[in-house]
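C-alpha cells as discussed.
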C-alpha cells in the first residue's frame, strides 16, 4: 500500500449500498439509554476490549464481509473470552461463498449489508486454515457449510434523524442515544457505510492519524468512495463526538482505526444506512 489510501481505493470497486426498505426493524430505546446523559453514555467502554484489531481486504471489494468478520470477532471475544477469535475466520471466504450463492462469483462486485446478513445465515464464516481463497472468483469447497459458523438472528436498521426533524425536544439526541445503546450498553457492533472523500484518500495526515475530515459533500455526484466498516466505539475527541471505525486496510490510520465526526452521519451524501445485529444474531 502506498502512503495514502488511493492506491487501493481508487482502483477497487466501491461498496454496494442497501436501498431503504420499509420492512426493516427499527430499534427502541431502553430505559437506561434514555435516563443516562450523553456524557455518561460516552464514558462507558465500547467494544475495543473485544476487538481483534483490523483486517486487510487488499484489492478485493470485500469490505462488507470484513466489517462483518471484525464484528463477529468482537462478539466471540465478548461471549467466550479474550482469545476466542484465535481461530481465524476467512472474511474473503465468506465473501466468495455468499456471492457464489448469488451467482455473482464472476464479478468482484461487493455485498450489501442485507446480503451479508442473509449470507451469514446460510453460509457463515469458515476457519481460514480450512479454506482461504486466492482470488475473488474462486468457488467455495463443496463441504464449506459442514465447517462453517452461521448466524441465524436478525438485525435493526438505525435511522439517522435530528431532534428537529423527528419533533423531539431539543437535546434528546435520539439517534446518538440509539448508537450508544448498541455500542456501550448492548455491547454489539454497528455496520455502516461512509463515502470517503478523495481528499481523505490521498491525505498523508489522514493515513497516519486516522482522523477523517468533516463531510465536504453537496450532492451524490461529488467524487468519493463508498466503504463498509464496523463501529468499535463512540468517543469525545478534540472537543467533538467521533465514531471509531475498525478498518480493513491493515494498520493504516490509528492502528487500523478511523475516526469520523459524528455529525457526518447526518449527511446523506456521506453516510449510507447503518445496521446493528440483534442479540439473537450474536
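Sequence:
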Amino acid at each position: 500500500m502506498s502512503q495514502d489510501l488511493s492506491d487501493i481505493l481508487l482502483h477497487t470497486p466501491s461498496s454496494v449500498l442497501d436501498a431503504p426498505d420499509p420492512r426493516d426493524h427499527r430499534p427502541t430505546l431502553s430505559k437506561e439509554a434514555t435516563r443516562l446523559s450523553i456524557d455518561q453514555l460516552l464514558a462507558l467502554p465500547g467494544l475495543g476490549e473485544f476487538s481483534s484489531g483490523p483486517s486487510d481486504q487488499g484489492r478485493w471489494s470485500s469490505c462488507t464481509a470484513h466489517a462483518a468478520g471484525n464484528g463477529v470477532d468482537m462478539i466471540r471475544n465478548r461471549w467466550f473470552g479474550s482469545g476466542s477469535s484465535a481461530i481465524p475466520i476467512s472474511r474473503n471466504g465468506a465473501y466468495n461463498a455468499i456471492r457464489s450463492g448469488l451467482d455473482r462469483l464472476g464479478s468482484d462486485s461487493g455485498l450489501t449489508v442485507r446480503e451479508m446478513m442473509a449470507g451469514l445465515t446460510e453460509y457463515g464464516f469458515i476457519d481460514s486454515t480450512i479454506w482461504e481463497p486466492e482470488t475473488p472468483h474462486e468457488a467455495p469447497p463443496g463441504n464449506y457449510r459442514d465447517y462453517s459458523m452461521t448466524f441465524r438472528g436478525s438485525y435493526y436498521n438505525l435511522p439517522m434523524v435530528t431532534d428537529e426533524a423527528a419533533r423531539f425536544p431539543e437535546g434528546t439526541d435520539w439517534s446518538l442515544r440509539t448508537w450508544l445503546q448498541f455500542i456501550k450498553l448492548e455491547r454489539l457492533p454497528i455496520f455502516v457505510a461512509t463515502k470517503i472523500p478523495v481528499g481523505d484518500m490521498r491525505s498523508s495526515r489522514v493515513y497516519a492519524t486516522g482522523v477523517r475530515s468533516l463531510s465536504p459533500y453537496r450532492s451524490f455526484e461529488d467524487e468519493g468512495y463508498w466503504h463498509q466498516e464496523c463501529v468499535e466505539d463512540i468517543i469525545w475527541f478534540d472537543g467533538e463526538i467521533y465514531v471509531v471505525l475498525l478498518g480493513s486496510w491493515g494498520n493504516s490510520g490509528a492502528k487500523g482505526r478511523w475516526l469520523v465526526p459524528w455529525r457526518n452521519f447526518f449527511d446523506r451524501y456521506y453516510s449510507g444506512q447503518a445496521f446493528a445485529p440483534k442479540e439473537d444474531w450474536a
